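Sat 14:20. Reprocessing the chain from the morning session after the first attempt stalled halfway. Input below, unchanged.
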Amino acid sequence: MVTHSAQAAQIEAYDAMAPLYAEYSGRYCAYLDAVDQLVIDRLKPGIRLLDLGSGDGRRLHKIAAHHGLTDVVAVEPSSAMAALCRKTTGFAVHQLFGDELDRLPQTGFDAITVLWNVFGHMADASVRLKTLGLLKAKLAPGGTIMLDVNNRHNRRAYGRWTVFRRCLIDALAFDDKRGDVHYQWQIGNQSLPSSGHLFTPAEMAGLFQRAGLGVAERLSVNYASGAVCDSPLDGQLFFRLRHGSSGRAGLRG
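Finished this time. Tokens:
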């Protein structure tokens, strides 16, 4: 990534969290299960799947097992998480960051998944854009990318008036740095520095357009309940993307 110290701190946090990751992610099972189901419903048997930011591999194993997928490649930069992912899934796991995907030899994937705000842990917009371009290059013709990100305009999480003010300010003078957040990650008895990014719907649309990717579908998923809706203001953002301009497309069978 661009900032090596920030990258090192992020990996340190994930390495430390690896033994407790199942417990941590269990706190958000309603949301994660809802996103997993959206992905499962849009895949079909026999496809080639790439997963970026696979964590401990439990979600990838669940998604792949539902359709009996065997041609699956995982990418996870944390060495501790990558080790868990290999043990959990049995799939090939490459220890790379998103902007290093040009080092991944495999290509021609029918579907690519990038789940639980992986893009929010990238250094900046230039890294996110590069990663999107590399993901696009890994897609087979007619392939699809599915991802979810934290939504800065999520009124269910931040309240109507806070989001109203954010929408107004962003409409008048957008600055993606407003979405950057820094916090301490409590992992066991350790407190490790971490960071992330909260996106706006328009910010994501701009990134996709610049990468030459069309939005085939956009949904919102409530972070507490897992409820799915169409409003871009009522949950975290889930996207299904394809090559080129927007339109209905993908692998939904």
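Residues 49 and 76 are 14 Å apart (CA to CA).
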